[in-house]
Model the fold of this input.
Amino acid sequence: MAPSAMSRGQDNWISSLSEAQPVPYWLEDPGKPAPEPALTGSETCDLLVVGGGYSGLWTALIAKERDPQRDVVLLEGREVGWAASGRNGGFCAASLTHGLSNGLTRWPAEIHKLEELGRRNLDEIEAAVARHGIDCEFERTGEIDVATETYQAAELRDWHKELQERGLADGIDFLDEAALRAEVNSPTFKAGLWDRRGVAMLHPAKLAWGLKQACVRLGVRVYEHTPALTLKQ
Ligand SMILES: Cc1cc2nc3c(=O)[nH]c(=O)nc-3n(C[C@H](O)[C@H](O)[C@H](O)COP(=O)(O)OP(=O)(O)OC[C@H]3O[C@@H](n4cnc5c(N)ncnc54)[C@H](O)[C@@H]3O)c2cc1C
Done:
């Protein structure tokens, strides 16, 4: 391409982004709920949870579900879900070991237990999303590892065989080129390994907001724009 055409192309590219805002896609949702009021007076509770990301929200929710009499307060320094929980990739994976291959390498003796716990955890997340009517576009899609080269297809087949021999292939299917094409109609892929139940896709911010609403409905007092500043015994 001639240099002048290249620079014209670059100008177009820059001008097409001139009105773009550097904000997380998920957090710009029109369904974003208003924040709960900040804490202004004094409060007491049985359980204080600091932080309105997934860790804090699930903690508060489960604490209240287990004992509805328990007085639970959650403090969030900014707004629920604004941090990692509202801006992640939306891959809700069962694996507790960041993938089976990594888990097998590091914890071969415990891998069956780790896999079982991870699947139960994802099942419980799915059940809680349904129980509380959280509209977070939760979809148990599974996940397909794909091969784009012939040698990778052979590696996937061998890996699937190894998983079968170790009793770890439950719900995981090897897809040859034709079977994969039936799922994903692309000539790029030569084979795939489909973990049918191991991953769900969801809208991460809607999950955080839905967990907040579920907490509030159960009686958790949620205060936003309320950073915890000191801890006194
Ligand atoms: C770009 C990106 C992509 C990711 N993709 C994925 C993915 O696809 N799948 C996946 O499973 N995980 C993913 N993750 C990881 C996942 O998002 C995090 O592990 C998870 O959200 C952590 O939740 P958390 O509640 O521990 O932390 P956070 O979501 O960060 O929440 C912590 C909260 O605590 C509040 N807080 C901190 N200090 C105080 C204080 N003193 N007083 C009051 N409030 C306070 C903060 O304001 C914040 O809201 C991704 C993360 C990032 C950043």
